[in-house]
Amino acid sequence: MELLEGRDVPLGRYSVVRRTLPNKVRRTVGAWCFLDHFGPEEVTGKPGMRVPPHPHIGLQTVTWLFDGEIRHRDSLGSDVLIRPGELNIMTSGRGIAHSEDSPTEKPPLLHGVQLWVALPDGARWQEPRFEHLEDLPVAEAAGVRMTVAVGSLGGVTSPAAVHSELVGAEVRLDAGTPAEIAVDQTYEHGVVVTDGGARVEGVDVPPGSLLHLPEGRSSLRLASEGGARLFLVGGVPLDEDLVMWWNFVARSHEEIVEARDEWQAGSSRFGVVPGGQEPLPAPALPTTRLLPRPRARAS
Q1: By the number of CB atoms within 10 A of the CB, which of 50, 216, 245, 274 ranks highest?
Q2: In CATH terms, is domain 2-235 a member of 3.40.50.300?
Q3: Are 53 and 38 in contact (CB under 8 A)?
Q4: Burial class, 266, CB count within 10 angstroms (exposed 0-12 / middle 13-18 / buried 19+)
Q5: Whole-angstrom distance, CA of residue 144 vs CA of residue 244
Q6: 240 contact partners, CB below 8 Å, separation of at least 6
Q7: CA 244 from chain center: how many Å?
Q8: Per-residue pLDDT of the chain (299 residues; tens, 9 = 90+)
Q9: Cβ neighbours of 9 (radius 10 Å)
Q10: How far is CA 234 from the centre of its chain?
Q11: d(CA 214, CA 293)
Q12: Domain chopping of the chain, boundaries
């Protein structure tokens, strides 16, 4: 097991997130290649989240809220307000653009996670699509309640469309009641604590850190003295080396350069996000060639 510390990263002009994937040690958990935990933040009288239109290729975005509301708009014409317990899953495929903003009239707190799933090579050139799912399955056992956003857990399965073997779920632990949940032993898993304090397989996991557990486990033992909330991710280890830069997941330097050039040129590849916001310009490319990276750094 590896306990990986998150790092603070600015998001837009007004927000800071704690990023646990990619990490200098581990870049993916299954096909999950990006995990930001934001909040809880008091946003009364503040702008809240303000992320202008920006592009994606080669991935799915997964947005999950614990508190607050976010308005999602994309170049397919989607315009959706996401609330706690609901799922936004956007498949970029060959290219899409979207914006994410707190509405003008909003709840006082903003708290959630934003994740990316790397699309496998056979699925990454598909046409983009967007799903908003309000009715997600819930599984309960002694001391634990699980809302399954992606994949299967606790005998229930999310209707969200994915392209590799994955699981993603919000897990709530009761105070003082140890729990054990069955998991797929072909998966590796990652656990982020978002509220309270928790022990996972005997390891104390502080908020803002990710505990990585390799494949081979058929269950996870969880406990919390005062109650806790976690987000669990997992999947079959990804055997494809990725090139990740800015908002793009690709397989070569040339693919990144092409996507950046097309975004900067206003290409129809990414479309137009309604709302009249100025699109986010791409940063300058590094002076060295971008190289594919494996899922974990060699020890």
Answers
A1: 245
A2: no
A3: no
A4: exposed
A5: 35
A6: 118, 120, 121, 251
A7: 15
A8: 999 998 888 876 667 889 999 998 999 999 999 999 999 999 999 999 999 999 999 999 999 999 999 999 999 999 999 999 999 999 999 999 999 999 999 999 999 999 999 999 999 999 999 999 999 999 999 999 999 999 999 999 999 999 999 999 999 999 999 999 999 999 999 999 999 999 999 999 998 899 999 999 999 999 999 999 999 999 999 999 999 999 999 999 999 999 999 999 999 999 999 998 999 999 999 999 999 999 998 65
A9: 12
A10: 12
A11: 19
A12: 2-235
d(CA 86, CA 84): 6
Tell me how crowded residue 295 is: count the other CB atoms within 10 A of its CB: 20
Instruction: Please name which of 165, 219, 159, 230 lies closest in space to residue 195, comparing C-alpha atoms.
Output: 230
Closest CA to 230 of 183, 266, 284: 183
Q: Are 207 and 254 within 8 A, CB to CB? A: no
Q: Which two tokens stand for residue 225?
A: 């003295």
Q: Which uninterrupted H or E stretch holds 72?
A: strand 70-74
Distances (CA, A) of 295 to 29, 153, 167, 175, 292: 8, 24, 18, 35, 10
Structure tokens at 226: 């005062």
Exposure string for 148-160, b = 16+ CB within 10 A, e = fewer? bbbbbbbebebeb
Identity of the amino acid at 231: F
C-alpha span between 224 and 200 (Å, rounded): 9
Contact indicator for 139, 158 with CB cutoff of 8 Å:
no
pTM above 0.90, yes or no: yes
Q: What H or E segment, with its residue span, contains residue 150?
A: strand 144-153
Tokens standing for residue 87: 């799922």
